[in-house]
Amino acid sequence: MGPNEKITMMKSEGSAIIKLNPKIYPLDVIYSAAYVLIDRAYIKLGGDPETEVIAELRLKESPRGTDSLSKIKLERLEMDFYNELLNYSFYKRQSEKNSNIRTALIQQVLLANSEEDFSMPENQSPAEDESFLNEVDNMEVEDDASKIAIPWEEKNSVADSESPDTLSDEREELEIPWEEEKCEECGECNEESMFDDPEGIAIPWEEKFKDQIDGNQKTDRSE
Amino acid sequence: METKKPTEASKEISRLELNKKFYNLSAVKESLKDFRQIGNFKLEVEEDRILLTPLSPIEDPNWDCELCNYILALMKNNSMV
Predict the structure, then answer these.
(1) Domain map of chain B by residue range?
(2) Which of A22, A108, A171, A194 has the most neighbouring CB atoms within 10 Å?
(3) CATH class of B14-77
(4) How far is CA A45 from the centre of its chain?
């Protein structure tokens, strides 16, 4: 049999026999192609893996049928088998072509992972980490002009202790309604003194122009 | 690979022959364990072939084909081929 020759014979029992050249389709390719079709057909391998491989295909649906439909299905199965042979041959070729790149990539990934695992210095133990953290917590801040490092409660409690009267006065002022706040000038409760109205906007119009109104009324009566 | 079918109805038990170059012996043994529910088999190993003979008649007429497929799948899954 030549290197490119394959012979297919149809048996009367409803099976197809395919003879393959292992130099064109290696054995692992034949196995892979056969594995794909085992759910649709019965596949049996024979012959010589070095010179000629014989694959017998038989449909599962009608294994012994010789009607036209079975023949069509069998022919289709045979074509599918050829396609799978070609598919896995190409896959194998590509796999061999990219094997070096694939190996390099995997090595790089494994190496990167191993470097992350050893990020902690070898001479440092977890116990030493905790002591270091404790030191940081207990460390006093040297430059803190704005007193940010001091907790609010502590800051206010210190302020209370230094000038308690000032704080109590401020609190009293906040509790007084604004209408009752004392006038800063006279020291008495004066609602009007709370507002500055140099233009007299707050004065009612009738009161503001009372004199003019009275004068107009007198003029009208004399006429 | 050859399969000898019974010439007389239900009197002669068929035998399955597998090419040793294509079917792994350990895979065949493992398959026979899984096929115990169907029946027990006699395993014979010759120079270039493996012979499987059921000890009792099997109802399924396609048992040989099913066994071939099973062995093939087992070899593929176990990365034997």
Answers:
(1) 14-77
(2) A22
(3) alpha beta
(4) 50
Q: Any CB–CB contact under 8 A between B78 and chain A?
A: no
> Residues A79-122: pLDDT tens digits?
999 999 999 999 999 999 998 899 999 998 988 877 655 555 55
pTM of the model as a whole? 0.56
Contact A31 B23 (CB under 8 A): no
Token code pair at residue A3: 């290197």
pLDDT for the residue A85: 95
Nearest to B10 by CA among B48, B79, B61: B61
Q: Where are the beta strands (DSSP E) in B1-81?
A: 2-4, 15-19, 41-45, 49-54
Contact A44 B76 (CB under 8 A): no
Residue owning tokens 């034997």: B80
Please indicate whether, in this complex, the C-beta atoms of B21 and A31 are within 8 angstroms of each other.
no
Contacts 24+ apart (CB under 8 A), A62-65: A62/A14, A63/A13, A63/A14, A63/A15, A63/B62, A63/B65, A64/A13, A64/A14, A65/A14
Residue A28 host element (H or E): helix A27-36
pLDDT digits (tens, 9 = 90+) for B11-38: 456 889 999 999 999 999 999 999 998 8
Check residue A59 and report its DSSP letter: E
Residue A70 structure tokens: 């079975």
Contacts of A28 in chain B (CB under 8 A): 81
